[in-house]
Amino acid sequence: MHQDLGSPTVEVRRSRRRSRTVSAYREGSTIVVLIPARLTVAEERQWVNTMVERVTRAERRRSLGEPELAARAASLSKRHLEGRARPRSVRWVSNQHARWGSCTPADGTIRLSDRLQQMPAYVVDYVLLHELAHLLVPGHGATFWALLAPYEHTERARGFLEGVSATAGLEIGSDVDDEADAPAQVGVPSAAETG
Ligand SMILES: [Zn+2]
Predict the structure, then answer these.
(1) Which H or E run contains 42?
(2) 131 C-alpha to center of ligand 1: Å?
(3) At how many degrees (to 10) do helices 154-168 and 121-136 cross?
(4) Cα 5 to middle of ligand 1, angstroms
(5) What kind and span of H or E run contains 142?
(6) Given 3-state DSSP classes, what are the helix, strand and coil percentages for the chain, each rounded to the nearest 5?
(7) For 30, which DSSP code?
(8) Spatial distance between the Cα atoms of 86 and 3, rounded to a whole number of angstroms
């Protein structure tokens, strides 16, 4: 079943050893909130809201802005693709639930799902490099994977994405973008307008 991807799963852990402090951290797609065992249900609800908001706000602050994303793309292209992939824009999108990334080779645009913002840098780099490679080679044939081979974290990143998908019950696995072969991509309005 699909979860609401906009709000993370929350797990509350009550601890007898805690008397006053409340803390929270992210564990994959879940935010774990640690509270003292003595809190009432109403207090718990209030603290959970506060802490989830605090964790997600900190994550948004940490995430790369679009200028940084463009710089990252340029450096990955230079390092692994001899600088041949030159995207015109790289953007975060929040409406992309079926893929981690997508691109439109015709106009050189790349879009990354903003769910990647919570993931390790090597995973973001993998998806970005994957889309950069599609600007040069469509589809997922041997030529395509040969372009990704020099990136040392390809297998690890694919494993990570597969794990996230399995945990969150998503229908995407390590396949970044099943539709990348087609220039017009289903479900991405900005890319559907080709012509
Ligand atoms: Zn792909």
Answers:
(1) helix 41-62
(2) 6
(3) 110
(4) 22
(5) helix 142-148
(6) 45, 15, 40
(7) E
(8) 35
| Ligand 1 midpoint to CA 101 (Å) | 8
- Mean pLDDT for all residues in the chain: 82
pLDDT digits (tens, 9 = 90+) for 118-164: 888 899 999 999 999 999 999 999 999 999 999 999 999 999 998 88
Find the largest Cα–Cα distance for the chain.
63
Interval 53-72: pLDDT, tens:
888 877 766 667 888 899 99
Report pLDDT digits (tens) over 4-33: 445 678 999 998 887 778 889 888 778 999
Dist. CA 126 → ligand 1 center (Å): 11
- Does 194 score more than 60 pLDDT? no
CB-based burial label for 194 (10 Å; 0-12, 13-18, 19+): exposed
Ligand 1 mean position, distance from CA 24 (Å): 35
Cα 75 to ligand 1 centroid, rounded to whole Å: 20
- Domains of the chain, first to last: 9-62 (no CATH), 66-192 (3.30.2010.10)
Rg of the chain, C-alpha, whole Å = 19
Pair of tokens at residue 48: 């959970």
